[in-house]
């Protein structure tokens, strides 16, 4: 097998079943993400879905404000849309961090989605609750499955907070694919990169635990749509497209999904390389 990190931009996704769309920059990706959310919602409603169910991330950020504006401009209601938030940070006591915490994904969705739309037009948003881990799987079952799982990809290739195993920790490929909604401890890699992007490098401000939807819920969605806009995702993109399917790179399970599209900025498709800055 060719080293995934040696695959040039013009060969990415070649020979795979995954579709790759490349956009110029982060602003274009935000617009594409918002349009995808709206297009998939309208398509599901047209197909007869009474309640459309999406699993959604907070990162990348920016798409929900654009989506709310698109709906206002086009007179579209999202009242029949159920958004299942992918994950949320937890306090040391194991509860959600407060919604007014700047790091709260629940708070972000309220400010940029719920509060940005009139009450009758806003979607219902439910995040996995560490005290009620069966709620999200129950909602998925009650509504006939997830129409689309949208997501980003972490530096170690995780989707939501489905972290890869620690070095030396055994993990069966099929067992990992069935991991459910759960509470877990975040890896050092995830807390470090999240500190870089969210707290100006203050890793102490990044919580150590989180609650996340599982690989089972993500891979069970009818469609999988991933969005990547960080320059440090160059390696993760190549590994998920062209490396082996492995718990060490959770996003690599996208290779086994029947309907997966990745949208990435041009910067993310560039070859990884070493440089002293």
Protein model, in words:
The chain has 277 residues and is an alpha/beta fold. It has a domain at 22-149 and 159-217: Rossmann fold (3-Layer(aba) Sandwich), CATH 3.40.50.1360. Helix content is 31%, strand content 17%. The chain has helices at residues 26-46, 63-74, 105-114, 135-142, 173-177, 188-198, 215-219, 234-242, 266-269, and strands at 19-23, 52-56, 81-85, 87-90, 124-126, 148-151, 182-185, 209-212, 223-228, 260-265. The strands form two sheets. Strands 1-10-9-6-2-3-5 form a seven-stranded parallel beta sheet. Strands 4-8-7 form a three-stranded antiparallel beta sheet, with no helix packed on it. α1 crosses α2 (63-74). The longest helix has 21 residues, at 26-46.
């Amino acid at each position: 097998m060719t080293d995934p990190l040696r695959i040039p931009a013009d060969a990415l996704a070649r020979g795979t079943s995954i579709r790759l769309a490349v956009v110029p920059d982060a602003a274009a990706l935000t617009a594409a993400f918002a349009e995808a959310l709206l297009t998939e919602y309208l398509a599901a409603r047209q197909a007869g879905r009474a309640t459309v169910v999406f699993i959604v991330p907070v990162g990348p950020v920016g798409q929900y404000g654009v989506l709310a504006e698109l709906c206002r401009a086009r007179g579209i209601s999202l009242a029949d849309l159920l958004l299942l938030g992918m994950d949320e940070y937890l306090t040391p006591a194991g509860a959600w961090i407060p919604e007014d915490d700047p790091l709260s994904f629940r708070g972000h969705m309220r400010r940029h989605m719920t509060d940005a739309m009139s009450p009758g037009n806003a979607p219902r948003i439910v995040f996995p609750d560490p005290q009620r881990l069966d709620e999200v799987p129950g909602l998925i079952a009650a509504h006939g499955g997830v129409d689309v799982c949208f997501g980003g990809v972490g530096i170690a290739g995780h989707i939501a907070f489905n972290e890869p195993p620690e070095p030396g920790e055994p993990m069966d490929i099929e067992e990992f694919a069935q991991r459910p909604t759960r509470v877990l401890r975040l890896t050092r890699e995830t807390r470090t990169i999240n500190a870089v992007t969210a707290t100006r490098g203050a890793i102490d401000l990044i919580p150590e635990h989180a609650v996340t939807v599982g690989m089972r819920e993500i891979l069970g969605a009818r469609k999988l749509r991933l969005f990547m806009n960080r320059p440090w995702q160059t390696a993760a993109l190549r590994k998920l497209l062209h490396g082996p399917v492995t718990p060490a790179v959770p996003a690599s399970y996208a290779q086994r999904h029947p309907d997966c599209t990745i949208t990435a900025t041009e910067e993310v498709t560039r070859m990884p390389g070493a440089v002293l800055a």
